[in-house]
UniProtKB/TrEMBL annotation:
Hydrolase listed as a keyword: yes
Organism whose genome encodes this protein: Leptospira noumeaensis
InterPro entries: AtsA-like_MBL-fold (IPR044094), Metallo-B-lactamas (IPR001279), RibonucZ/Hydroxyglut_hydro (IPR036866)
Highest taxon of the lineage: Bacteria
Keywords of the record: Hydrolase
Protein name: MBL fold metallo-hydrolase
Domain Metallo-beta-lactamase: 71-271
GO MF assignments: 3'-tRNA processing endoribonuclease activity
Keyword rRNA-binding (UniProt): no
PANTHER family with a match to the protein in the record: ZINC PHOSPHODIESTERASE ELAC PROTEIN 1
Amino acid sequence: MKSNQTKSLYFKILFLSVCSLTLSCSWDRFVLSRVNESTTVKVKAAKELLDKDKITIVLTGTGSPLPSESIQNSTAIFVNGQFLLFDAGDGVAMAMEKLHLPVSEIGAVFITHFHSDHFADLGEVIDRSWLLGRQKPLTVHGPKGISDLVNGFLKSYQLEYHYRTKHHGEAVMPSQWKGAKTNEFSPKSDGSSKIIYEKDGVVVHGFFVNHEPVEPAVGYRVEYKGKSIVISGDTANSEFLKKQSFGADYLISEVMNKSMIAKVEKAYESIENPRLAKIMKDIQLYHIDATELGNLAEAAKVKTLVLTHMIPFVKGYVQTKAIYKDPIQKVFHGELIIAHDGKRIEIPLP
């Protein structure tokens, strides 16, 4: 009897050992498979985006300061093997990784102005690009004030940088590539542009936009092999923006439907909330209305107009058509794209 019990216990132990070994091998295969799959996806995405035969625009964030389902404002442009990022609102760093963008390849960041929905995630963009393997200098370009902004982030991340290198070592986390440099510039008040960045045929111009009382505020124009992309930044209707957008292949612009925001303003007044009513009134003064934007794009002979940073945020075909498409397409006869987070636009090169 005792011998049978011993045999039974032995077989149970043997069975559990085999099961444990099998399960362990299964998890090993599962983890290896997931790592291989993730690596393959990232390598493929990087190869496509850094393809020098085309320009790729990725709308990494299309939101605004108002609550919505969208990541705050940011646009990535891949051109001639370079990764340029324009603005870095809240949530952009993780959004780029979820989109499998080659974050370690970011070579330059351009900030349009100092509202937080355009720079809140700048510290994370700088840090994550380094953590994920960036081994080249990163420069953040922007109007006067950009040095103070970047230095503030660098100071707050000082211990982060120190601990990462101390833990993983210089070979893995080389301290020479941590952080970022700045290129601070003053836009020309006459509306003309100045070259901010120039590398291997890629040229980025900066120009003044009207986002008063936010000064300075700028937009950017990217040019390469006869193709041009304009980033409006935040702006009211402006002759400066029209001038810099003339003949652009793509104008990526913020937009507001002011009649809808006026209704929101009145709604807050009706419930006796003067603070929010005042804010809704004020923001109409320094953003461009949908009809104004349509007229500007038509007058500037813009080929394709891309809407981002839309206020108010809307969902669905009916709302989008009524609030943005209809008023713009009444006056603008080029192509119109309503952006969403992750939207990709490819521009073939001659």
